[in-house]
Specification:
This protein is of the alpha/beta class and 129 residues long. It has one domain (3-128). The protein has 5 helices and 5 strands, in the order βαααβααβββ. The protein has helices at 7-18, 22-34, 36-43, 48-55, 59-74; strands at residues 3-4, 44-45, 80-83, 97-110, 115-128. Strands 3-5-4 form a 3-stranded mixed beta sheet. It has a two-stranded parallel sheet with strand order 1-2. Helix 2 crosses helix 3. The protein starts with a strand and ends with a strand.
C-alpha cells in the first residue's frame, strides 16, 4: 500500500523495507540506486507535480540522495524525515521547495566501560519557500 510523502509515510516505508529478508532488502536498495523515480512511485502516493519534481532533479543530487538512503537502510538504520508546510499558502502554490540531506555523527562515552560509541544518522528535510 502506497504511503503519503510525509514523516509517518516515510516511517512506514522504512519499517517495511527493514522488515524484509536481507535478499529482498538488497533488491529493493538496488532498485532505489538504479531507478529512484520508480522506487519512490511504488512506495509513496505522489501527485503529478511530485513525480515531475523527482523526474527533474539533477542526476547527481538524485544519485547522492538514493545512495544515502540505500546506505542507511542497508545498514539497518532509519532516516529522520520531515517536511514543513507553509500553511499561509494554498497547496497549489507550494511548488518551490528545498530538499536538504545531511548526515550526522553522535558520540557517547561510557564511563563504566571506558568506551566511546559512535552512531551515524541521516536526515532529510523538505522545506517550502
Amino acid at each position: 500500500m502506497k504511503q503519503p510523502l510525509n514523516a509517518s509515510g516515510s516511517a512506514f516505508v522504512q519499517a517495511h523495507e527493514l522488515a524484509q529478508s536481507p535478499a529482498d532488502l538488497a533488491g529493493s536498495m538496488l532498485l532505489l540506486e538504479t531507478n529512484f523515480d520508480q522506487w519512490m512511485d511504488e512506495r509513496f502516493e505522489l501527485s503529478a507535480s511530485q513525480r515531475a519534481q523527482i523526474a527533474n532533479m539533477k542526476p547527481f543530487f538524485k544519485a547522492t540522495l538514493a545512495d544515502a538512503i540505500a546506505g542507511e537502510l542497508s545498514a539497518g538504520r532509519t532516516i529522520a524525515f520531515s517536511k514543513t508546510n507553509n500553511e499561509k499558502r494554498a497547496p497549489e502554490e507550494l511548488r518551490d521547495k528545498d530538499v536538504i540531506i545531511f548526515g550526522s555523527t553522535r558520540q557517547s562515552y561510557s564511563l563504566g566501560a571506558a568506551e566511546i560509541h559512535e552512531d551515524q544518522g541521516l536526515q532529510i528535510l523538505i522545506t517550502y519557500r
